[in-house]
Write a structure and sequence with these properties.
It is built from 16 helices and 13 strands. By secondary structure, it is an alpha/beta fold. The structure holds uridine-5'-diphosphate.
Length: about 375
């Protein structure tokens, strides 16, 4: 199967990390076309997946853009669509991994007469996307895609509610190589030592820094936990959320938590860091489409608390494999942190369950088989 994957991002967010796992089995015959240069390209190369930067001009449409702004970007898109159309003729089909990739991929699939698959990693709800963007995504997917792979039931339901055709959708969760999350004790010790975390109860937050990812909720919760509870915030502002980063630092200073909150920036040693945590907190204030970090924490054997919305609810069964709290409720989160701090045995039992069930449910080879059967 010769697949032309398309992704708009040069930066490795969740959708991009998922694409690496999907493209790997096809690396001898596929191409990943990107609409921006950056660290994601390097990661693809490290995984021996062929990659080409198709444009270096940023496409000026954002998640909240209006129709006029969308139309304004058409001039930029035409050369890109024509380039993708030419390339697509050498491939069996186009696999669009993001919304802008869907726009370009849909038109190129029509012009090159190649089928289109759309991997939906988003919840197409008003919380996340403007009406125009939702309408464009649904119209193009309905008209041009033969298959829409939704990364959770939550994403699938939102797509259908936004007018998407139910009969072309299939839910496929992200896959993970559980071996990659088995970290030797010596590496964990080294991390705790390097980060000066010895003697601390460490709550980890792993996500790009963005308001809806809710790092501020964790900081607020931390103020209501014992002195030796420390938070590590792992991730960077990938899409220009510099004001939010500034506000987080101000919040930490106002609450006098400078010694208890560590900003680590973007890291690629996620399994090591997660294993070094006593608890992983997922604090998204809006429904999460899937929530890779939740599964990753489970695979590391680290207890996880997530917010009760979207895909997270399909991953966490409360008091069986983790904890769920109401989004934007720091007090509830503080209670979970305090109870894990005081009763670690209970948390460890849940984490053990979670590790076993997650390694079966999200096994990358099983997930890749599901995708293979849908594509063939
Ligand atoms: N991640 C990473 N380095 C960081 C922060 C996050 O590699 O510094 C990874 C994280 O392990 C996860 C992904 O980025 O695999 C984020 O995916 P998720 O589904 O949680 O959120 P998204 O970015 O798709 O909204």
């Amino acid at each position: 199967m010769k697949i032309l994957f398309l992704d708009q991002s040069g930066k490795p967010g969740g959708a991009e990390l998922c694409l690496i796992d999907i493209a790997k089995p096809y690396r001898d015959s596929c191409l990943v076309g990107l609409f921006a240069d950056g660290a994601f390209k390097n990661l693809l190369e490290q995984n021996q997946i062929p990659v080409q930067i198709l444009t270096t001009q940023a496409i000026q449409v954002r998640k909240e853009s209006s129709l006029a702004q969308g139309l304004g970007s058409l001039g930029q898109l035409i050369p890109l669509i024509s380039k993708v159309t030419k390339i697509a003729r050498d491939y069996d089909f186009i696999y669009a991994n993001t919304q802008k990739a869907l726009v370009v991929g849909a038109l190129a699939s029509f012009l090159a007469r190649r089928p289109l698959v759309y991997h939906l990693h988003d919840i197409l709800s008003p919380e996340h996307f403007s009406k125009t963007n939702r309408r464009i995504a649904v119209t193009l997917a309905n008209r041009f895609a033969s298959l829409v792979i939704a990364n959770s039931q939550a994403s699938q339901v939102a797509f259908i509610e936004a007018g998407g055709k139910a009969e072309i959708t299939e839910v496929v969760y992200n896959g993970f190589d559980s071996q990659a999350y088995q970290v030797p004790e010596s590496e964990v010790e080294k991390i705790r030592e390097n980060l000066e975390l010895d003697g601390q109860f460490v709550v980890g937050h792993f996500s790009r820094l963005a308001p809806w990812k809710g790092q501020h909720i964790l900081i607020e919760a931390l103020a209501n936990t014992p002195e030796n509870v420390t938070a590590i915030l792992v991730g960077d502002a990938l899409f220009g959320e510099q004001n939010y980063v500034k506000s987080l630092h101000e919040q930490v200073a106002n609450l006098k938590l400078e010694k208890r909150v560590k900003f680590l920036g973007f890291r690629s040693d996620i399994p090591q860091l997660m294993t070094a945590c006593n608890l992983v907190a997922h604090t998204s204030t809006a429904a999460e489409p899937f929530g890779r970090v939740i599964v990753e924490a489970m695979l590391c054997g680290t207890p996880v608390v997530a917010t009760k919305a979207g895909g997270a609810m399909e991953l966490v069964e409360p008091d069986v494999n983790g904890f769920l709290v109401t989004p934007s409720e720091p007090q509830e989160l503080a209670e979970v942190i305090n109870s894990c701090f005081l009763q670690p045995e209970n948390c460890h039992a849940l984490a053990k369950n979670a590790r076993v069930s997650a390694s079966q449910r999200f096994d990358v080879s099983v997930i890749n088989q599901q995708i293979y059967h849908l594509l063939k």
